Amino acid sequence: MATVALLGNPNTGKTTLFNELTDKYAYVGNWTGVTVDKKMGTLRHTKIAVVDLPGVYSLNPITKDESVAIEYLLHGDPDLILNVTNASQLKRNLLLTIELLEFGTPVIIALNMIDDLNRTNVTYDLPTLAQRLHCQLKATNARNKKGVAQLRDDLVASLTELPPAAALHITYPTLVEQGITQAAKKLAAEHGMTPDFARWLTIQFMNQNQTIRAYAQAHDLKPLLQSAPFYDAQNFENQIFTTRLTFIEDTLAAARRQNTPTSQSELTNQIDRWVTHPLLGLPIFVVIFYLMFKLSFDWIGTPLSDGLNALVSGPISHGANSLLTSLGALPFLKSLIVDGVIAGVGGVLTFMPQIFVLFACISILEDSGYMARAALVTDRLMQMIGLNGKSFIPLIIGFGCNVTGIMATRTIEQPKERLITTLISPFMSCSARLPIYSLFVAAFFARNQALVVLSIYFLGIAVALIMAKVYQLVFKVKGNSNFMIELPQYHLPRPDIILQGTWDKGKGFVKKAGTIIFAGTVLIWLLSNLSFHGPVTDIDQSFAADLGRWLLPVFAPLGVGSWEIVSALLTGIMAKEVISSSMIILFHFTGRTALVATFANLFTPLSAYALLVFILLYIPCFSTLATIKAETGSTKWTIYSAVSSFIIAYGLAFLIYQIGSLFI
Amino acid sequence: MSLLINLVIAAAIVGFAGYEIYKSVKRSKGGGCNACDYQCDTKEMLKQHSSKLN
């Protein structure tokens, strides 16, 4: 089966193009680091395989995910490379293109985001570019599908009649050329390589590509290994870069056509003047988050959620009860199904609207191009802490799920920065905690729901940043890596991308309801209906009550006065959503309305807030701990993460409740 | 509905819950994530990463 490899710089719309070209949907985001591994698909209506590789600026890998591209070229043997470029950033994009053209596999260049280029009043003469680069070029705009069908047809046509492989030969300075020619000849003669591959390999080796150097060692490529000190001493890497840059500048100068200026290109600049402003950028970021929570908790999410809750605790619960009674179900089975499964799982599912609205907002921010600005704005703050904006991306992914957030730390090159970001990621308030926030803000902060949830989120960020600073000092991290992010033009978000992005982020929550939340619900039902002496009718005699009462003195200084809350907190280790379902079950309610009313007798607004802070920060769920173990490869760091987060959560909740009690 | 059927249904619910907990612990230990079942790219990468470590 023929294979097309998609390669290009980050943020060139590669994943969007992949989705348009293939039958498979891949997650699309408008910021660096979304594609962390290769994705596979088949070109629509064909059997041609398409591989989407992570965005890279060059074939010389710096991070783990960047090595996927060069490894694929070495071992994947694609029939055709589709090089996706950002048409308005060609000068930088063509640096990678040259490396691909030198590789020798036929290349088609997609000048993507062509509309962005047109808005800058510049166009390129494609025949001139094609003649200089010795390959086909196609103008596309994947977001509105412009040119995509034509590109698909061209790919099929090119694969049907593959053009003869003809690598691009740039003339490098004399000494470099001599070195390339000598080594390539020997490689071809001694190792049976094709002349093009031998030349490409030599250039990459001279360019200090670490993957290629390891490849040369592994294959004992003596013509390269013996000359390595000479190449490095002569600074061939720099000479190659300068030659390529000159070639690109000459090529673009020859093909560039300036059009009459329009005012459209100014829009992005005008918006950026405000949203990336050194002083106003951060407050705007906060306001945008506030509006997100307003939509989720006040304007759209909660009203829908209340409707769902009325449905679950009313008709569904009563209907199930009547049906089971008519079928002759015994009380314990009715209790298990109605008071356990329907109340617990159904109770958590009623929070779906808030979670989905929040994910929709995040998808809109991603697709509009704002997320890249948010990373830039937070970079200033991060730099004060000693981290860089690249840490912002895993942290914000952690708002969805800490597990994927921690996995995304792989885009950070420095091991110490990576470890620090991993350790602080669980402080990001993942979506699993939203149901419990929603319960408490409805009970105690009905008029300021969005503001209270926002404060919890930002408290999580503040704790994460403070801990990052502490770790910086403890690990003695000196300096930090540079953060480079491309700011795409603003787009009007596309509804289908928003819907797909929202569903991608939110479907985990729905699936979890049928798996771990269901399991946690049944477990807490069992614990609340059994004791050492068998089944109990009085929940105060149950295992759950014994356990909760035993630990209650520990939580009393935080303002917690009920064993049900303590037992529910313990189940949060399975998944944070289970805390809410456990509370509904332990308080014997079929829905959350009655639970919210009960809270009024158990908490004050102060103790409720202290408990929310504790829930925000205390021990991560089991999956997050397992991911920390997998990513750090260390049990020590995993235990440390669990213990330290508990201490921080306890300490902060204690301070809030105790100090607050002095004034309130 | 006889006592036996009641017991069988309850046992099935509890058994399924137990199986889900077992599956979740096993998946988490293997570096998976029970947040969602679909095989996202980050999970695929983690799997490869773990196999490299082993």
Automatic annotation (TrEMBL), chain A:
This is Ferrous iron transport protein B. PROSITE patterns: G_FEOB. CDD domains: FeoB (cd01879). The keyword Cell cycle does not apply. The chain crosses the membrane at residues 274-293, 341-365, 385-407, 419-445, 451-471, 513-530, 550-571, 640-660. It is found in: Cell membrane. Keywords: Cell membrane, GTP-binding, Ion transport, Iron, Iron transport, Membrane, Nucleotide-binding, Transmembrane, Transmembrane helix, Transport. Probable transporter of a GTP-driven Fe(2+) uptake system. Residues 1-161 form the FeoB-type G domain. NCBIfam families: feoB. Belongs to the TRAFAC class TrmE-Era-EngA-EngB-Septin-like GTPase superfamily. FeoB GTPase (TC 9.A.8) family. InterPro entries: Fe2_transport_prot-B, Fe2_transport_prot_B_C, FeoB_GTPase, G_FEOB_dom, Gate_dom, P-loop_NTPase. SUPFAM superfamilies: P-loop containing nucleoside triphosphate hydrolases (SSF52540). It holds the Pfam family FeoB_N. It is a multi-pass membrane protein. Its main location: membrane.
UniProtKB/TrEMBL annotation, chain B:
Pfam families: FeoB_associated. This is FeoB-associated Cys-rich membrane protein. It comes from the Bacteria.
